[in-house]
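P.,

For your records, the input lines for the assembly:
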Amino acid sequence: MELNAKIPPGPLKDKWSFYKDHAKLVNPANRKKMDVIVIGTGLAGSAAAASLAEMGYNVKSFCFQDSARRAHSVAAQGGVNAAKNYKNDGDSVYRMFYDTIKGGDFRSREANVYRLAECSAQLIDQAVAQGVPFGREYGGYLNNRSFGGVQVSRTFYARGQTGQQLLLGSYQALMRQVAAKTVKLYTRHEMLDVVVIDGKARGVIVRNLDTGEIETHSAHTVILATGGFGKIYYLSTLAMGCNASAIWRAHKKGALMACPSWTQVHPTSLPQSGDYQSKLTLMSESLRNDGRIWVPLKPSENRKPNDIPESERDYYLERRYPAFGNLAPRDISSRAAKERIDAGFGVGPQRNAVYLDFSKAIKEQGKGRIKEKYGNLFDMYRKITATDAYVEPMMISPAAHFSMGGLWVDYELMTTIPGLFALGEANFADHGANRLGANSLLQACVDGYFIAPYTVSNYLAGEIKSERVPIDHQAFIDAEVQVRAQLSKLLEINGTKTADYFHKTLGKLLYDYCGLSRSKEGLIHAINEIKKLRADFYKDLKVPGDEDEMNGELEKAGRIGDYLEVAELMCLDALTRDESCGAHFREEYQTPEGEALRNDEKFCFVSAWKWRGEGQEELLIPEPLHFENVELAVRSYK
Amino acid sequence: MKLYLKIWRQSDAASEGKLVDYELDNVIPHMSFLEMMDTLNEQLVLKGDRPVEFDLDCREGICGQCGMMINGQAHGPIANLTTCQLHMRELKDGDTIYVEPFRALAFPIKRDLRVDRSAFDRIIMAGGFVSVNTGQAPEANGIPITHEQAESAFDSAACIGCGACVATCKNSSAALFTSAKISHLAKLPQGKMESRKRVLSMVKQMDEENFGHCSNTEACEVECPQQISVLNIARMNWEYSLSSVLKK
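Structure tokens returned:
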């Protein structure tokens, strides 16, 4: 099997225009006859659903939350990037493209990344028109802040709640279409399978989480915008419900998974304080604009941070990466923190944290200005830790955050199943081996608002003659039987361990062996342990209640069953990549200074994986990456 | 810490519910309230009992999905905080804690502590948006908006839709929720255009959903995790009066 990314011809800067000029269209009368299913109502999902409905398609939109407004895009804090160059600091589409390609350690497609940068300015226009209250300067014009891995200010923000405000914009656009009856919205519905007929995605099986009822829905195309699966690590910055089930079940139906082990570990989250803990709260990267990261020079330091004099502090990011300092990219910052913590310089009761200190910024800019910029983050910190970060430095620690990996998609964001699209964090496309801060909101929005309307239409133009598939088609019946069998299987085990026990055990394994640093030996060990854990799961899981009722434990068990399979593929993916790139750091491949050592000769490709059935090792299908516009360089932030 | 919990259990909207007693040992003060509930549920599952259904998701106070009445207060004893951000250190060892769902005619109970807040979505559907399609937007800096105006619009837009305002209001009024959206959009030039029509249709929808009237007790502002100001309600009333008078 050869992977065809379908990159349009022509120079880099003209590719997207070429595509748009030549994409096939569906005339308005025919659009009414075409049904589109969108799974997920985060930024990518709600933007796609609203935009396609505005065009005249019949859209069905699904989310597992009790309202479309609660999808996890809501929690993104710091901002969204756009190459507007409002700051007159030398920004351009090309520079943003280059920063993103370099930030991803040269493991993403040039054409995709260029398009992301190209569509960024338009997104800010769209969001402002929807009423998103971005931060403004006193003259009334939009303001920007800086984010990691770049030397310009191109990040637009709405205090520390940018994701919430962007999502409310797309949610409101979606609800406007629901009111216009062009979208039918199903909240508290979880997708459990994709239905494939004659090789094309033609519908889904979903479960109503309030009643337990299984429903089947048919359509001409299915769009998955189901977000990332960093929650596989159990302790993560994600919401409790975030999961891999939709993309994993699509994978088992034939969609390839790309680079699943590339998980971003965010450097500035709150440290773990105990075993009961259910999540690690993120503190926005924007804090690194004004906060300085340090650890004591002395290991096992017992003095309080404010009692440690300047001369006995190690500002290790400023020391190791003078050009970017505290704004070094996330993978590098997280690894540097882990290095100090592992070497015994960690702080806090569990010695698992580093300090993020605002005293210099407060002295220089005043408390009022810092409060205006980050007030809600300082409030959140106080609520969770009962500590006033205006007086004492914050304690932060790395935490699993963003999935760069996901379903493999071509330039049109279509998976290897025709008619099945994957948008936003659910796909592998733009971020390579490491995502730059404030590019995730951007990618989700651009995929949903600006790309899907063209590429989905281009696909549907070829489906105008396809009749609606009735839901009593054999393929729907078979898929439903399989879904029901899967649910019953989980309920029948009746063992002695809760779903959370398996999730926590799995999460610990992944943090230890497939987290910030990986080794051949560790990954082989992890694969064996995951296999054992999976066998135990199907022998000793306990799920009370029934399938035909609201059953939170059954929901969890289903997701964890999938995670136990995803985890094995993650480890295999990491094991087969004998290089270090971005978030993927193999201990065997590093420079004497401890920096990542890429191997462009052998690994300049995307690892796409094909499911071959239960108990069989997945097949690796590489998609070679061709760089025609940038030179592969060692990624240096020194 | 040891806690005595009295938790509302109810199978579905049609059934009768009741408070059930649970005892929980070894509660750690650093736990969040929802982590304490997780611990209880884990014990129930291991005993083969049905765990307590409650709403949750982001656990960082922004998705607005969690919400319970804790000792009669929406989101518990601390002002301006979501349930997921309430930590056990705020409660005392040996306390008896009443845990109940958000109660309002417009929020029917689904099961245990989970309620149906879809009425909020329908209020937004009635006009809580700017009528702009994808692709129609002009250049973002084309219309300057003062710093103060943008900040003030943000203050209204920060609502997370949790429903604590309704749950805490003796009239179960959704005035704070509805007015926050009306104000957010009315404060910005992009939303101003439709503000007259918007306020009338959103208020009408709010009434149809069986929310009560606002009688200015200001209890909602105290519980609101985003500290949405009751001045939004004043603005809504002003916009409503103006729009009613000017309506043809």
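Two observations worth noting. Chain B touches chain A through 76 residues (CB under 8 Å). Strands of chain B lie at 3-9, 18-24, 69-70, 73-74, 96-100, 109-111, 114-115.

Regards
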